[in-house]
Each structure stands twice: as C-alpha cells, then as structure tokens.
Amino acid sequence: MVELGQWEKALSVAPGVSMKYWKKLMQRRADQLMAEDNDDAIPYCVATGDIKKLVTFFSGRGQLLEALLIAQGACEGNIRAPQSSAANHTTNDVDNSLLHKVCKDLAEWYFQDGCSVLAACCHLAVDDVELAMSSLMRGNELELAACVGIVLGEGANQSTAYCLQLLARKYMTNPTWELSADLLRMIPDNHVLLAKLCAFYPGTAAEINQLHERCGLPSLEECKVLAEEAVNEGDLFSAVKLRLLSPEPEVALQIGINHVKGTHTSASVQQLEVHRKQRFHVFFLHVLVHLLKRREVCVPLKIEQLSVELDAWRACTQANSMYVTHTHTHTLSHTHTHTH
User: Which PANTHER family has this protein been placed in (predicted)?
Assistant: First the structure.
C-alpha cells in the first residue's frame, strides 16, 4: 500500500503489526511531506511527538512564532509521544533546549528588526536575564533596562550596574549632572565612579563643592590636604584620586609619573632590553625561514654552508654592480664620441 501511495490505508493497519512499525511509517510519511514543503506533515509529527523535526520545519521556513508555540507546548506536556516513563526526564531536557534555542532565534530576529524590547521579552520568557538586559542596552533602551534590572534584583546585579554607568555617562551634561551622580549612587562600591564623575565636572568651585557633598566626597581644599597626608602615608592610589578632586588636578599626573619612574629600576630596564633583543632574534629567524622556503636547500643547514652562500651572493652582487657601471660608462663614452 505504501508503494502504491495509499498512505492512509497503510497507517490505519500498521498498529496491527506493532506500534513501533506504525511510528516508523508515520515518520516516513512526515519526511516525504516535509520534502514537498507540505503543511500536512504537521499532524504526523504531532502524533509521533517528533518535536525537534517539527520545530526545524517551521524554523527553516522562517515561521519562528509557530516553532515557539510547538516548543512551548512540548515543554508544557501538551505534545507528547507514546513512550515509557523512564525516558520522560531526557525528553523534557531536549524540549527545554529546543525552547531556549527557538526563543534565542526569535529574539535575534526581533532585534534585527529594530524591536529590542520584544527581543528582551523572548529572553525573559526562558529566564535568560543576561541576554534580556543585553538586548535592551544594545537597543539603547537604557532607562527600561535599569528598571528591569532593579525589579529582577540579585540575578541582574552585574548588568544593572553596567546599565546605570551607561545612563550616568549619558546624563553627564550641565543640566543633568546631579542626576548622573544619583544614578551612580545606586551602584554598590561606587566610590571610584563618583570620584571620576566629580573629576570631570567643569563647574565653578562652589558648584564642584556642592557636587562633592552630594556624592559624599570632601571639598576641594579638604581633598588637597588629604592628598598630602596620603602621600606621606605612602597611599599612592588615594593621593592620586584626591589630587584629581583638588583645585590642582595636574599634580596627580606628576605623582603618577614619579611613581612610574621609581618602579623602573636599572634591573627592570636591562630585563626589558633583553626581551627586546629576544623579540628581534625571533623576528630575524621568522624572516630567515620565509627566505629559505622560497628556494630549495639541503636540510639541515650548516654555518659553513651559509657562509659560503653569503660570500657567493656578495661576489655575484659585486660583479653585477661592476658590469652595470662598466656598461653605463661605455654608453656615455659612445654618446660623447657620436656627438663630436
């Protein structure tokens, strides 16, 4: 009956042979219909619980929403193949991986179409918080990403902190500088970030002190005094940071330069010189290998052989040079005689 194309009749009597044979016949029929791009293959895949084949079929046609519905239905237990309970755990893992894959593909399609919010929703549907936050930030939905991260809490702490930094950088303008400081204050371990913000602030001394107070930092003059104390105590990092916040930020550069000069002792300079020579030797060997590859030579090479070849090359070059000089002189002499 299958050879005659009477699939319905064959499938109706196949269970009389065995369920295994019926399932195999159903899969053959589904494969045939899929090769013809025929939607009639769908009920055959559903009946046998072949979710992976059905998801691949829809995905290949660009019907990602349909593929998502099938994968979700399988995860919820609405589409299930006749099987023993021992294989249920493995089947659930496969269905979950399919659902994650389809959601990721659909999210990428939405993002490429300019719908970063819908892309983030797809990632959140499968609890992929990191990719959801990434989609919102890549789509420049920073405010929404910050709100989502705050609501999600601990699972999105790292992404939320990065998003708040981007938002703070966005609002580092004269009308909204204080908003930038408030955003940075929402980040744990924000002391260095607030110091950077205040160091970039271009306002007057009174405005800078006001911003320092809002960020919990000392005033300009207090930073200068504290920086000198940090230098005396050997706290280089605090000294540079406080100097950048003081009325003389250029002094921080000098402190850093002096520290770099002090760390580069004569021994370290000699070590750097050795590394430089080693890099030159490696480069020389690299060039030599490429030159040797361009001609047929006997391997292994000996120093004496290289010396002989080098002398021969020099002699050949010198001979060519003498020939060119002689030819040029003869030509000039002939031209001079012809002119006279």
Answer: WD REPEAT-CONTAINING PROTEIN 17
